[in-house]
Amino acid sequence: xxxxxxxxxxxxxxxxxxxxxxxxxxxxxxxxxxxxxxxxxxxxxxxxxxxxxxxxxxxxxxxxxxxxxx
Length: 70
Prior knowledge:
Structural class: mainly alpha
Number of strands: 0
Largest sheet: none
Radius of gyration: 29 Å
Strand content: under 5%
Order of helices and strands: HH
């Protein structure tokens, strides 16, 4: 506590009347679907690349279909 008092005084943050520190502790909660590990990120990136590739192939197929009907 003395370190904190000296630090606060050095920065001239308080006049020394009262210093209070909140000692609350909270347990972290993280849902599994929001937790990203390295293997999961690799899989997600692979899935995204596959979805983009499939989408671009569909666009090309529709473009070719429109070209052949005109």
